[in-house]
Amino acid sequence: MLRINKTYNQIKGGNSITKTTFGLGYDSHSGFNERWKSIFGKAPKDTKDKTIINIIRFSTKIGPMFACATDKGLCLLEFTDRRMLETEFQDLCKRLNAVIIPGKNKYLDLVQTQVLEYLEGERKDFTIPLNTPGTEFQQSVWKVLQQIPYGETWSYKQQAIKLNNPKAVRAVATANGYNRIAFIIPCHRVIGSNGELTGYRGGLDRKKWLLDLEQNFSK
After folding, report:
1. Residue range of the domain that includes 158
2. Out of 68, 75, 93, 187, which one is annotated catalytic?
3. Looking at the domain assignment, is residue 27 inside a domain?
4. DSSP state of 142
5. Which tens digit of pLDDT belongs to each residue from 13-72?
6. How large is the average pLDDT for residues 115-137?
7. Exposure winner among 6, 94, 110, 191, fewest CB in 10 A?
8. Structurally, how many domains does the chain consist of?
């Protein structure tokens, strides 16, 4: 996978397929082409317009996570046991015309450091560029989510009012559920109007843990 990642970037950068194939240790064109097709579904010459999404898996004190990033920014940060994760990967690939493969990325290095600092109560704000494709409404909802201060909670109704659309409570809740960037786009800070914890695909136990963390370190 790492060789394929490097190969793709070299081909996309203008290197010939022949030079790249043998320069990175493949013994033949046929072996390289078969490996490539198993990932991309097409021959190398037909995939030069694809975006690469790099992925890593890393451990945290509340469970292992996946992080994905393009060369423009972080596009996914999720717990590995999140429901519908495979659907999220497919949606990302479709929206960004991309493939997901392991590989190094400066944003993936940065997110590991900042997430671990956040979970220790040592960080309240994130400074990672995001690349979050979605509908116009989803983008507006995710933007409002980022306005909720550390250590505070809003209701879905408050979110809808902030969007100047107080009747869109259900639509707001649905858009929150499509958020792919845990912590940084903090959907865990949204609760029911009655104060109950609801609607966190990372699990309500984690949601409570995160809210307790922020309460303790916001004082």
Report:
1. 136-217
2. 187
3. yes
4. H
5. 555 444 555 444 554 555 555 665 665 555 555 455 778 888 899 999 999 999 999 999
6. 95
7. 94
8. 2
The pTM assigned to this predicted structure is 0.80
Residue 6 lies in a domain: yes
Q: Is 157 exposed, middle or buried (0-12, 13-18, 19+ CB in 10 A)?
A: middle
Residues 85-121 have pLDDT tens digits of 888 988 998 999 888 887 778 999 999 999 999 999 9
Active site residue 187: yes
Burial class (CB in 10 A: 0-12, 13-18, 19+), 92: buried
Question: Is residue 189 in some structural domain?
Answer: yes
User: Rounded CA gap, 79 and 59, in Å?
Assistant: 10
Does some domain include residue 121? no
CATH number at residue 206: 1.10.10.10
